[in-house]
Structure formats: structure tokens, C-alpha cells
Amino acid sequence: MEKLTLEEIEPSNRKYPGIIFQPLREVGNQILHVENLKKSVDGRVLFDKVNFTVNRNDKIAFVSKDPLAVTHFFNIINAEEIPDHGSYEWGTTITKAFLPVENNEFFKEGKSLMEWLREFVPSHVTDADEPFLRGFLGKMLFSGDDIMKKQTYSVVVKKYVV
Does one domain contain both 125 and 144? Predict the structure, then answer.
């Protein structure tokens, strides 16, 4: 450590992709309330008697030995499936987004990245012109003519954003 000189240390030129999600509005006190949730598939109980409440500023993680249980849980709280028993309620100020484990339906072959991304621009964004989309793709390290090439997509992403 004594031999190191700060002036000789150069910053890394490595780039990392990143997108910062901005909430549409401040959340209220209640984020999510789950009561006695149960789900079975083909007679096999994935989870039962799941109870919890998530409030503002809570930090949580979903941990399971069975990824199928987590998948079905997220499908339920996103109204993609119906639970066998129980209920859930999102807070009134919550805007939710969900990208499932199986997401090939979002990636259609034969479209450029620009065409593909334009489909997912929220209606409240009024300035989603080419510079805006190029900037967004640039954050994911796509540049130049790469964004206009017709692509085939094979992506698996596990992400849940509240």
C-alpha cells in the first residue's frame, strides 16, 4: 500500500449497462398485503398460509427452494393466475411492473431494437422520439447501427419491480 501513488491509478474504462427506474409518484404507506395465500399445482402444494404486509421503506426478499412456487406467487399477485385460497391487495398508490421468468412473448423476431423498444414506451412519455430511444438503448450499451439491425431475441430475465 505504501508504494501506491493515487496519481498513477487510472479509472477503469469498463462500461456497465444500467437503467434507472423512476416512480410515477410517491408510494403510500401500504405497498402489499397478502393473507392466507395458497397455491397447488397437480395436487402438489407450492405454498400455503402465506401472510405478510409490505409497508413503505420495508426491505424484503422472496426465498424458496422451489422456483415454481416463486413463479406462481408472482403470477398470482400480478393477476396472471388465481390462488387456491387467500387474497392479496396492492396499495392504492402502487404502479407495478412484472417481467416473468418466461418472457419470449415480449421479444418478436424481425424487429430492430428501436422498433421493439418503441412498443413499450408508456403512454405518459410524450417525448419518445429517436434521440430518447437511442439514449435509453445507449444505457444498455447498444450504439450506432446496432440498434437498427433486425434481431432475433433469446432472453431470460428474472426481475420484479414495484
Answer: yes
Amino acid 47: pLDDT:
97
* CA separation for the pair 144, 46 (Å, rounded): 47
Q: Nearest 5°: phi and psi at 33?
A: -125, 125
Number of separate domains in the chain: 2
Alpha-carbon distance of 53 to 37, in angstroms, equals 12
Does 108 map to a domain?
yes
- Last residue of one domain, picked from the residues 49, 71, 94: 94
Helices and strands, counts by H and E, the chain? 3, 7
Q: Residue 32 and residue 60: Cα distance in Å, rounded?
A: 11
Give the per-residue SS3 of 55-102: ECCCCCCCCCCCHHHHHHHHHHHCCCCCCCEEEEEECCCCCCEEECCC
Mean per-residue pLDDT pooled into runs of 10, the chain (162 residues): 76 74 83 97 96 95 92 93 97 82 73 83 76 84 80 50 46
Distance CA 34, CA 54 (A): 9
Do 34 and 86 lie in one domain? The reply is: yes
